[in-house]
Amino acid sequence: MRHVTAAEFALKFTEYQQSVREGAIQVSSPGGVAGYFVSPEEYAEYEALKAKARQVLQAGSLPESWLAELRGTAMDNRHAHLDALMDD
């Protein structure tokens, strides 16, 4: 990945815009990384991955039928040794 300062990026934006398809560009400022410049294809891939990310569900928001099924489940005995980890 290429690394450039924010000042250089601003001065040479057209150059970086044309070459971004070769890979992402890390843009830094005196305080650290300011951001990343990526191609439209890479950004679309990022958005697709973000959309597929696991969602967190709270038990209170689940349908009662799901909760009933969960209550009826049991851990496989092969994993019983892991119960000791819950005692801490």
Quick synopsis:
This protein is α+β, with helices and mostly antiparallel strands and 88 residues long. The protein has helices at 6-11, 13-19, 40-52, 64-71, and strands spanning 2-5, 25-29, 32-37. 39% of the residues lie in helices and 17% in strands.
N-to-C SSE string, H for helix and E for strand: EHHEEHH
Which percent band covers the strand fraction?
A: 15-25%
Give the spatial strand order of the biggest sheet.
1-2-3
* Structural class assignment: alpha+beta
What overall form do the CA principal axes indicate?
Answer: elongated
CATH-derived topology of the domain at 1-39 = YefM-like fold
CATH class of the domain at 1-39: Alpha Beta
Calculate Rg over CA atoms. Answer: 24 Å
Helix fraction, binned, reads 25-40%
CATH arch. level architecture of the domain at 1-39 = 3-Layer(aba) Sandwich
Number of helices: 4
Mean pLDDT: 91
Q: Spans with pLDDT under 50 lasting ≥5 residues?
A: none
Mind describing the biggest β-sheet? 3 strands, mixed
Give the strand tally.
3
Spatial gap, N to C terminus = 43 Å
Give short descriptive properties of this protein.
three-stranded mixed beta sheet; 4 helices; 39% helix; alpha+beta; YefM-like fold; 3 strands; 88 residues
Note down, in words, how this protein is organized.
- This protein has 88 residues and is an alpha+beta fold.
- It is built from 4 helices and 3 strands.
- A 3-stranded mixed sheet has the order 1-2-3.
- Strand 2 and strand 3 form a beta hairpin.
- The mean pLDDT is 91.
